[in-house]
Amino acid sequence: MKIVLSGSSGFLGTSLRSSLAADGHNLVQLVRGTPEGPGQSQWDPYAGRLDAEVVASADAVVNLSGVPVARVPWTEAYRQKVVESRLATTSLLAETIASLGGETALVNASGINFYGADRGDERLDEDSSPGTGFLAEMAKQWEAATAPASDAGARVAQLRTAVVLDRAGGSLPLMMMPFRLGLGGRIGDGTQWFPTVSLADYVDAVTLVLTDETMRGPYNLTAPEPATNEDFTKELGRRLHRPTLLRVPAFAMTTVVGDLGRAMTGSIRATPRRLIDAGFAFSHRTIADQVGAALR
Fold first, then answer.
1. Is pTM, for the whole model, over 0.90?
2. How far apart are CA 107 and CA 206, in angstroms?
């Protein structure tokens, strides 16, 4: 396949790009700076600049663009940047695909917080209702921005991605720091559900959605055996040979980092029903499998 990839220099994009290239796919990276070769094309989503010919010649576009959510402090200006970085890129790609007749597929990032910050023990799959709160509202707008492409007849899939665990990037290196200092512990009472997925399963799941022309709509990219925050805390402490006796009060998290803290202390019991129905085989089903793979 010929695939256009945005967000290819980030933690997830780098791993996906390497895997797709190893599989023999022809990749074109969308970059903000000066292209370094024929495998790159310059764009400016905020100014609406994109080479439509690059999109027209591709079988699919994978859009992973967006500034990181896991950042402190969450100022009002940064919250706006989180939203704008996702909507500007998605809208430009979807509208370009639509203007070309909807012949190019769009596989677009989204977040598992589509379901809200806290749904308790409710079992959530792709048919569950959206939640409330900043991240949920952002995810709804993010997915809605793909509508021009789907309305034009393009195959569109949204990747509702959980926390991807790997020591190379993402949230895990930050979460490991207090554990290494012997200060690791559960957040709140630890009973809240904490959706995660291994990097290998993330890459394989995105590849399946990308290459299977029957797959469209939302997909939960999360492990099939949900774990709680306490399960994760104990497993990470065990693997790092560090104690996990401390507890971070939930109110402290929300006081210090606001909406991000509410997302970290909330409970999302999401399951990947549609991936399972499509026959996807997870390599790391449990939190023990995922943490082991992440630290290997």
1. yes
2. 8
